[in-house]
Amino acid sequence: MIAALEAWDAQVADAADRMALDARPIDWRLVDADRIYELAAVGMPGVMRHWTHGRDYWIERSRLSRGRGRLYEMIVHAEPPIAYLLEGNTLPAQKLVIAHCYGHADLFRRHAIFRDHPTDYPVRLAAQERRRQAYVAEYGPDAVDWVLDRAYALDDQVADEVPRVWQKPPERTDPYADLFPRSQPKPPLRPPKYALPTRDVLGFLGRESPVLADWERDLVLSVRQEGLALAPNRHVKMIHEGWAAYVQQRLCTELDLPDWEQLEMARLWAGVGAVQKDHLNPYWFGWNFIRWLIDVHGWDTAIAAILTETDASLVRNWLTPEAAQALALYQYTWEEEPVPPQGPLWVARRAARPTTDAAWVRWRESLAAHLVRPVPEVWVTAVSHGTLTLTYQTPQVPLDEAWGLATLRSVADLWGGPVRLVAGDYTWVVDAKGD
């Protein structure tokens, strides 16, 4: 099979060049099922070992055992991109996956969100894991896990911010200074101790906590690096899968394949790209939305949008009522119908697209929000007398109290002092003991 896959890869690469894709080279690796599900659980090779990754691994495996999904490949943003293929795939499945990965690789290299994103994260993360192992040997697993448990509770609260440089304000001249001389000179202005506000909560704790040892800071900042490595993928999941599906279909249609392989590929894609009952399938929606964009707006305009937008912004800026109707995007509501003599019967009604501009905007916003995994936006805004103040930026969306307080206790442990969370009309306070 290896020789056949190498020959197919060469054909796909030539076809990708004709599409003007920036997709090759790709680092191909064949792995077993355990390895590919392990990678799916952590998101990238080389991450530090932690019990939450084992939990996510068994979630992925249990989904497979229930027939809820199967992983055929996984591709990682690096240079070159690293594509992991499942050993047990059939030859047609491997060919389909290879064509699919060319779409992913092209998006990694050309999308604006990855333009300034480092491509050496796998190397960085592997070095961090080696340091974690050294800390386990020196300080013990319990001490290391204590830090990691709290840092991983905040791995979404990261931002790749450029440090602000404090500038001394210009001197203000007083024309009457000689009439009213000061008995003592004004004290010199000092830069603030902390560069606030900041969205990078975990980075702030790793750099500024007064209680963490150097090795503990390293662990906290290592978790921050993992969060930064995976952050862009959360914003372009639908575009990624939709573009990879579009490229895969174009390449496989253009290249000469035996009939039985085409049928097997069609069967596989019918399962992966099908409409789902309980959620919006990013493969199906991304593929069909991109096709609609190209058909309606033309290749150049559609590609410019695909390579610069996120999932949410693509929906907000480009999804029209006509597109929603063409893609059969409907909302379903339960309505009560009296059906004598059995009594009332609840039936599902398929509602057409909203008829007013305001209703349409609300509908489109709900769809855009559905495509993004919700992460509370929290900023570090002040430090006063040892108390760290966090501000929740969207208080109109209430926080879950149990989860919020548990996360706030992790912040207090890493900070080593009281922590306040201001969220609109209410304030949560946790001291260093977690009370």
TrEMBL record:
Protein name: SpoVR family protein
Domain SpoVR protein-like N-terminal intervals: 3-336
Biological classification of the source: Bacteria, Bacillati, Bacillota, Clostridia, Eubacteriales
Pfam families: SpoVR (PF04293)
Region (Disordered): 173-192
Organism of provenance: Sulfobacillus harzensis
Domain of life: Bacteria
